[in-house]
């Protein structure tokens, strides 16, 4: 029989459940709230870990209110940066001390996580009404679900997260028109150079979260796809005529953008050591003209830098015009219940309320967040800059094919494939640092090594590499999943 979550579930659990885990040493520094014990003297402890820094303040309030509604449950919440999360979780899982709820680290496929025993299925702890509240395309086989069982939920609806923010005040100081930002690659590089020269060390053309290789790879793939590379979203495998797109002319021209920015001295010199939150904060302090990140920046700046005069634009296109759009896939996997959590009913209750219309409406109204719950966005999205970002994302972004959603058998390939290093993001890091000067050669080597790794994984999984090729993919249009 299915164990459906309801608001009355917690009361029953108060007398029957002990703690799920030990206290988190970092919780107090990341928004841990406290709660009293239940009337019966027993307290369920839910340890939760993710990297959702842009919604952290809302989560603090939500966690406190959740514990007030359910005094028998104590929430210990830890928020880490993406790189910290990957390292911390890997160590915790290896030591048998995983949090009760944690998000899937970037670059890790659900199939791999499940095969290694990270998560337990949560379908039996969720009501059908709750499952049906997700927008179409939010819960997909191979992405959030395996063999019909839901293992993780998406954090939000996925939209393009590599648009370009720019500082309007710096534009005016440098004689650039803030109402006519650069539209082409050459205009963008020139604007970065102008800003750097005018800043004379006070500010630079662009600041990057250079320590986060994943962010750099997302950017590079976006530039390349706009040039026609048919390069899918971060971590998604795709081939053209049986070959990966990483040594294509479009990819090489995209990497040359970073090489030119580096040669011009237009990249903030601290970039190579910055994570995404640090780069975002320094950008708001007026240390760069441009920043390429996602809509999650908007609520953070509204709260921490209310006087910051920023704007947003689409990613520039090649000088001879766009040959593709900024790629994104459907809603991505995020939070799951640990395989070692002793009280999944409590964890599922937390998720049920986290995805409730009340909390979802609040984070959408803050800006920077697009809910995957049906009907919430239409009613709650009110921030004008978020609306601009959303409209630009919808017009310049193009939904790309996701092999996991279209061919679930590819999950086994992802579980078998070995990562090639340096990866694309690390190659960009090398270009920024000046340690990689032969950009074409670096991509040729990476492409060849990746092709060998992909073919070996396909052979091991018994899946033909053609499962990652989509002849009907027009990168200038949203991929039609209904075909």
TrEMBL record:
Entry keyword Signal: yes
Signal peptide: 1-18
CDD domains: PBP2_TMBP_like
Gene3D superfamilies according to UniProt: Periplasmic binding protein-like II
Superkingdom of origin organism: Bacteria
Listed InterPro entries: Bact_solute-bd_prot1 (IPR050490), SBP (IPR006059)
Keywords: Signal
Protein name: Sugar ABC transporter substrate-binding protein
Originating organism: Candidatus Gemmiger avistercoris
PROSITE patterns xrefs: PROKAR_LIPOPROTEIN
């Amino acid at each position: 029989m299915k164990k459906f979550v309801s608001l009355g579930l917690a009361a029953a659990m108060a007398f029957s459940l002990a703690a799920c885990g030990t206290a988190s040493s970092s919780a107090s520094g990341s928004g841990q709230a406290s709660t009293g014990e239940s009337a019966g003297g027993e307290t369920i402890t839910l340890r939760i870990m993710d990297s959702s820094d842009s919604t952290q303040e809302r989560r603090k309030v939500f966690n406190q209110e959740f514990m007030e509604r359910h005094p028998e449950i104590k929430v210990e919440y830890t928020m880490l940066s993406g790189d910290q999360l990957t390292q911390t979780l890997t160590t915790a899982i290896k030591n048998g001390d995983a949090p009760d709820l944690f998000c899937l680290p970037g670059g890790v496929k659900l199939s791999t996580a499940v095969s290694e025993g990270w998560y337990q299925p949560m379908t039996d702890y969720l009501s059908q009404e709750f499952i049906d509240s997700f927008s179409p395309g939010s819960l997909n086989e191979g992405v959030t679900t395996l063999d019909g069982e839901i293992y993780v939920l998406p954090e939000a609806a996925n939209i393009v997260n590599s648009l370009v923010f720019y500082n309007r005040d710096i534009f005016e100081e440098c004689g650039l028109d803030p109402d006519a930002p650069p539209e082409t690659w050459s205009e963008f590089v020139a604007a970065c150079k102008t800003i750097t020269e005018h800043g004379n060390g006070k500010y630079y053309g662009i600041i990057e979260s250079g320590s986060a290789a994943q962010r750099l790879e997302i950017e590079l793939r976006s530039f390349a796809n706009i040039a026609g590379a048919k390069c899918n979203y971060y971590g998604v495998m795709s081939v053209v005529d049986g070959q990966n797109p990483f040594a294509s002319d479009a990819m090489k021209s995209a990497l040359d953008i970073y090489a030119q920015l580096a040669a011009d001295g237009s990249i903030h010199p601290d970039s190579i050591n910055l994570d995404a939150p640090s780069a975002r904060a320094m950008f708001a302090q007026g240390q760069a003209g441009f920043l390429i990140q996602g809509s999650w920046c908007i609520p953070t700046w509204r709260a921490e830098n209310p006087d910051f005069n920023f704007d947003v634009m689409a990613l520039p296109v090649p000088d001879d015009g766009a040959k593709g759009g900024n790629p994104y896939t459907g809603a991505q996997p995020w939070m799951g219940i640990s395989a070692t959590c002793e009280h999944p009913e409590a964890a599922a209750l937390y998720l049920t309320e986290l995805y409730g219309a009340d909390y979802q409406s609040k984070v959408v109204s803050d800006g920077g967040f697009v809910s995957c719950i049906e009907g919430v966005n239409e009613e709650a999205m009110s921030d004008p800059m978020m609306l601009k970002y959303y409209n630009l994302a919808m017009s310049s972004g193009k939904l790309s094919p996701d092999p996991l959603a279209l061919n679930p058998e590819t999950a086994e390939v992802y579980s078998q494939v070995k990562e090639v290093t340096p990866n694309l993001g690390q190659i960009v890091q090398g270009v920024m640092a000046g340690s990689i000067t032969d950009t074409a050669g670096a991509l040729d080597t990476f492409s060849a090594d990746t092709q060998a790794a992909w073919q070996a994984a396909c052979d091991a999984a018994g899946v033909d590499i053609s499962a990652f090729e989509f002849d009907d993919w027009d990168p200038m249009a949203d991929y039609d999943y209904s075909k």
